[in-house]
Write a structure and sequence with these properties.
The complex is a heterodimer of chains A (about 425) and B (about 325). With about 425 residues, chain A is mainly α. In chain A, about 70% of the residues lie in helices and about 5% in strands. In chain A, the strands form 2 sheets. A 4-stranded mixed beta sheet of chain A has the order 2-1-3-4. A two-stranded antiparallel ribbon of chain A has the order 5-6. The longest helix of chain A has about 35 residues. Chain B is α/β, with parallel strands linked by helices. Helices cover about 35% and strands about 25% of the residues of chain B. Classes of the chains: A mainly alpha (about 425), B alpha/beta (about 325).
């Protein structure tokens, strides 16, 4: 095999596809778009979560005596002691009347048995619901009122916020985990795996559509009289693989720019805060490369067996459906990553790249299992590449004709003597 | 007979011996034998589905034969020979989004050229083909004829020793056809070998030194163009002028063309055309304006041979064997 020709083909594939609009969009525009959408969503949700501006008069009918415990205060003073928009209403009938004449926008009734049952009933106008934010505010007010009933101020503080000194350690380390990173422990592996999935699929799709394009425009025969089939295959795989890595690199640059704006350029600390260990990153790179080779080979086989890009997308979509299974069953990972389904996904080659990375991030996976998963993936890639080459020889020249299973089996039976 | 025993081996650009190719139960090429001499224009003819493309693909090692041997440029096919071969497939196209000069340079480098040399040569050829203003154009911006010329340039950019071109004139207007023909003749004059699969019989008559006709995977005609035409020539002459042609001794029948200016004289068996010419020249009752052997056009021969089927192959094949100068191997007339 001529490495020079592999290099020529890889370089051309990289340069040609780098200039594709779809690549430029995915690499440069998509991250900005996703970030913008996320900022908007978080802004809207965040604002909605804490926004109490719509509420001015919310009554609390305290039948449990939570707010009337301090008998030294007058009822009016007790009512005024509550933060807006809450105000104490003396009875349920009065609250109902005020709701009807719109003096109140809604009210909560703390039932007499509240301390033993926790029962609170809420009433509101149909056109103005009592939001979760309002409920949280009520909870804070009630919690504070109850804590005030405890004589010990320290105990009162603990009752008010029992987990404010929580420290979490990762098994095997003595370094406490940043509480803020707890979200990252859950979210980052998902984001990274999605990233891997998108990148692998996008570049594999390039490979497949490029191949279909070459079949459609009859370039394939010219290539076959210029280079060996393995040179063509590896040139395409490596060129587009480099494109995938470039894509991830561009996304990484965006992250760095974001970190720069945040005033944090300590990459090691950033990675640590995201719970990204060197072992995880190493595994990420391994599964990225092997996953790409596998999907690339599959897409290569699909590309040579069809004649139109639409057909290739349909077939590629079927493969894609299998590969997203770990995401569909992600609940299995979050509840117990050791159960058979995540274990199967982490070993089955089609789902291993995403399946293993998710499982490894959230649970202990033995080195033996990782080795088995990688070995199965390598063997599978080898077999798919062989099949891809075989199908290429059968299908590459069948212009205007889709390579059917029947053709494939027929040729297997008769034997194909092409080298 | 082995290749090494053949005296012409050193002058053969291609040698195909006993090659058979099957797709499942379908025999696409059936025990085919022929040679292409170095420096000649060789035409492969045949009706659609005859096995021409399969034969070409086997010569180029895109397909491997089930049996038989093929030698190209002096020996079995190997990777180094790809750089000495230019191939223009019948069903062809280019990357529509690629720029013309970049694409040609890329294809040149795949044929072993340096990037600079390929770019320089591409530029020269684009100028020569009248596409100098389109160097930076995308392929999608070219007309069909322009694309055809770019494809032809891609085939010859690396100055191949062997050029295999499938339907080189398809889709070209007369001006561009003449341009490509001129280039092909120039390549021949430089000693390069050209194998053409082509349907335009008048182009074959004009350009080809020798031809091979395949039908249903089997060789049915093979030899020099003149030999093939002579083989199918009847014992007749075509004359124009004045006189009672029917009264000539040895003339069996006379048939005038539609305009009534040319007459085909069918001669009796044993009467030679030169004897008829002598008789006319010696007789004052005849005024001769033209005299020619009644040789059928390749188009007529093609229709006659390709129009036959089954048993009729026997006659055509016998002709082919006689013309090739090879002994019967029994397969071609099967």
């Amino acid at each position: 095999m001529s490495l020079h020709k592999v290099w020529l083909i890889a370089r051309r594939e990289f340069a040609y596809n780098f200039r594709r609009r779809s690549f430029l969009f995915t690499a440069f525009v998509l991250p900005i778009l996703v970030a913008a959408i996320m900022v908007i969503i978080f802004a809207v949700v965040g604002q909605a979560e804490g926004d109490l501006s719509a509420y001015h008069h919310i009554g609390i009918v305290d039948l449990a005596g939570i707010f009337t415990a301090d008998l030294s205060l007058s009822t009016q003073a007790q009512a005024n002691s509550l933060p807006a928009p809450f105000e104490v209403i003396t009875g349920e009938d009065q609250a109902r009347a005020q709701l009807q004449d719109n003096t109140l926008q809604g009210y909560y009734v703390l039932r007499g048995d509240f301390l033993s049952t926790g029962r609170i009933d809420a009433y509101n106008h149909p056109d103005l619901g009592l939001s979760d934010a309002l409920g949280s505010e009520l909870q804070a007010v009630v919690k504070e009122a109850m804590a005030a009933r405890v004589a010990d101020p320290g105990l009162a503080t603990r009752i008010g916020n029992p987990l404010d000194k929580l420290t979490i350690y990762r098994v095997g380390t003595h370094e406490p985990v940043d509480i803020a990173a707890l979200v990252a422990v859950f979210v980052v592996p998902i984001l990274l795996t999605v990233l891997l999935f998108i990148s692998i699929n996008a570049t594999s799709q390039f490979l497949m559509s490029g191949l279909v394009d070459e079949k459609e425009n009859r370039m394939m025969e010219i290539f076959l009289t210029s280079a060996r089939l393995p040179e063509i295959l590896w040139g395409k795989l490596l060129g587009l693989g480099a494109l995938g890595i470039t894509q991830v690199g561009i996304w990484g640059i965006y992250v760095l720019i974001f970190a720069l704006f945040q005033g944090n350029l300590d990459i090691g600390r950033t990675l640590a805060s995201l719970q990204l260990t060197p072992a995880y990153l190493l595994l990420f790179v391994a599964y990225f490369l092997l996953g790409y080779l596998m999907y690339g080979a599959i897409m290569f086989a699909v590309g040579v067996s069809v004649n139109a890009e639409q057909e290739s997308r349909q077939l590629g979509g079927v493969v894609g459906l299998v590969t997203v299974l770990p995401f569909i069953f992600i609940f299995a990972y979050t509840t117990d990553p050791g159960v058979p389904l995540p274990t199967f996904f982490s070993l089955f080659p089609l789902t291993a790249p995403s399946g293993m990375l998710l499982r490894y991030a959230w649970s202990y996976v033995s080195p033996g299992e990782i080795a088995l998963s990688l070995a199965l993936l390598v063997v599978f890639i080898f077999l798919v590449l062989r099949l891809a080459v075989f199908m290429f020889r059968l299908g590459a020249l069948n212009y205007g004709k889709r390579l059917s299973i029947r053709d494939l089996l027929s040729n297997l039976r008769y034997g194909v003597k092409q080298a | 007979m082995s290749f090494s025993e053949n005296a012409n081996a050193s002058t053969d650009a291609i040698r195909v011996e006993g090659v058979t190719k099957r797709y499942g139960k379908h025999v696409a090429v059936d025990n085919l034998n022929f040679e292409v001499h170095q420096g000649e224009i060789f035409s492969i003819l045949g009706p659609n589905g005859a096995g021409k493309t399969s034969t070409i693909r086997m010569i180029l090692d895109i397909l491997r034969p089930d049996s038989g041997r093929i030698e190209v440029l002096g020996g079995p096919f190997d990777e180094s020979k790809k750089e000495r071969i230019g191939y223009l497939p019948e069903e062809r196209g280019l990357y529509r989004g690629a720029r013309v000069s970049e694409l040609l340079a890329y294809l040149g480098t795949l044929k072993g050229m340096t990037n600079a040399a390929a770019a320089r040569r591409a530029s020269e050829l684009l100028d020569e083909f009248g596409l100098g203003e389109n160097k930076k154009s995308k392929v999608s911006e070219l007309s069909r004829g322009m694309s055809q010329k770019v494809q032809f340039i891609a085939t010859i950019i690396h100055k191949p020793d062997l050029l295999v071109i499938d339907e080189p004139f398809a889709g070209l207007d007369p001006v561009n056809t003449e341009m490509i023909k001129t280039i092909i003749f120039r390549l021949k004059s430089e000693g390069r070998t050209i194998v053409m699969s082509i349907h335009e019989m008048h182009q074959v008559e004009e350009m080809a030194d020798r031809l091979l006709m395949i039908d249903q995977g089997r060789r049915v005609l093979y030899g020099s163009v003149d030999e093939v035409r002579q083989q199918y020539a009847e014992n007749a002459v075509v004359v124009s002028g004045q006189g009672n042609w029917q009264a000539l001794p040895g003339v069996q029948s006379v048939q005038a063309d539609e305009a009534g200016r040319h007459f085909t004289l069918q001669l009796n068996r044993g009467t030679r055309p030169d004897e008829v010419l002598q008789t006319i020249a010696a007789n004052k009752d005849f005024r001769l304006q033209s005299f020619a052997l009644a040789v059928p056009s390749l188009n007529d021969i093609f229709i006659r041979v390709a129009g036959h089927n089954g048993a009729n192959h026997d006659n055509s094949t016998v002709a082919g064997q006689a013309l090739s100068g090879k002994g019967s191997d029994g397969h071609e007339s099967a």
